């Protein structure tokens, strides 16, 4: 009889241990399910947050350009300068007659004044992710003199001269580049007069745009 009681006690202890182990496994499974569910929710929130942050970053990137356009419009309102909004920036066109003597790449006093106005306008602009391309353009009349063999040399020299002047006015030189186009990119003129069309094509453009540099 005593042996039976002892045996009964052993059986109950073994069953209690199995129940405790089963409860532990159940709790452990529940814990991992909760962790998994929480992770999924957090991942979803993270994706939403990332999308919102991306949109906000893009918005912040657009704001300086918008402010720059407004500043340039105000500072050049009464000057021989025209502004053109582009898909990736803004183009500022200077009539070459306001910058140079005919057939020359030497800046006039008026040209220096106009470039100073431009440099002052972009002085406080955030240029991160942007570049400034100085474009030299001519009309279709060929040139050949002691200084320039063709319109390519003339347009290149004018673009380089403007670039150097901007550097002297403290514009970040790492953002600048100069390009010669000669008469390959004529502007669209409303005038049907050939002389007026050619005058419009003789220009220097400063193009502030999203950077394509790597």
From TrEMBL:
Keyword Transmembrane on entry: yes
GO cellular component, one term: plasma membrane
InterPro entries, sorted: Bact_OuterMem_StrucFunc, MotB-like_N_dom, OmpA-like, OmpA-like_sf
Membrane topology: Single-pass membrane protein
TM helices/strands, residue ranges: 20-38
Superkingdom, taxonomy of origin: Bacteria
Residue ranges of coiled coil: none
Record-linked SUPFAM superfamilies: OmpA-like (SSF103088)
Subcellular location: Cell membrane
Keyword tags: Cell membrane, Cell projection, Cilium, Flagellum, Membrane, Transmembrane, Transmembrane helix
Keyword Flavoprotein: no
Domain OmpA-like: 87-212
Similarity comment: family membership: Belongs to the MotB family.
Protein name: Flagellar motor protein MotB
Organism, as annotated: Vibrio penaeicida
Organism lineage: Bacteria, Pseudomonadati, Pseudomonadota, Gammaproteobacteria, Vibrionales
Gene: motB2
